[in-house]
Amino acid sequence: MVDGEDCARRVAMGFGVGAALGSSIGAVYGTYGAFKYRVPGLFKIRYIGQNTVSTAAVFGVFLAAGSFLQCYR
């Protein structure tokens, strides 16, 4: 059994790892999508940034939830 502080640390670490992984995948996918859909000019940077942040948030939340579920197991 782990205490609450250790569990919070694990959840935060899970979010950080998920966000790092998600941001790298989001950047690659966003770049691909920007060129595939022919996003004009500087809107490419916005498109890639939105994909990067949203994918990082989703991966981070899922890994944090998984870490939370594993805390008291």
Descriptive notes:
This protein is an all-alpha fold. The protein has one domain (4-72). It has helices at 4-36, 43-71. The longest helix is centred in the N-terminal third of the chain and has 33 residues, at 4-36. This is Reactive oxygen species modulator-like. It comes from Raphidocelis subcapitata. The chain crosses the membrane at residues 12-32, 52-72. Belongs to the MGR2 family. It is found in: Membrane.
How do you describe this structure in short?
With 73 residues, this protein is mostly helical. It has one domain (4-72). The chain contains two helices and no strands.
Secondary structure tally, helices: 2
Structural class: mainly alpha
Indicate how many domains the architecture comprises: 1
Rg from Cα: 16 Å
What is the string of SSEs from the N terminus onward? HH
Overall 3D shape: rod-shaped
Instruction: Return residue spans where pLDDT drops below 50 for at least 5 consecutive residues.
Output: none
Q: What is the share of helical residues?
A: over 70%
Mean of the pLDDT scores?
A: 94
Largest sheet: none
Kindly estimate the percentage of residues that lie in beta strands according to DSSP.
under 5%
Distance between the termini: 7 Å
Strand tally, please? 0
Pfam family, one: Romo1
Transmembrane segments: 12-32, 52-72
Family: Belongs to the MGR2 family.
Subcellular location: Membrane
What is the strand and helix layout of this fold?
Blueprint: H1 4-36, H2 43-71
Transmembrane segments: 12-32, 52-72
Pfam families: Romo1
Main location: membrane
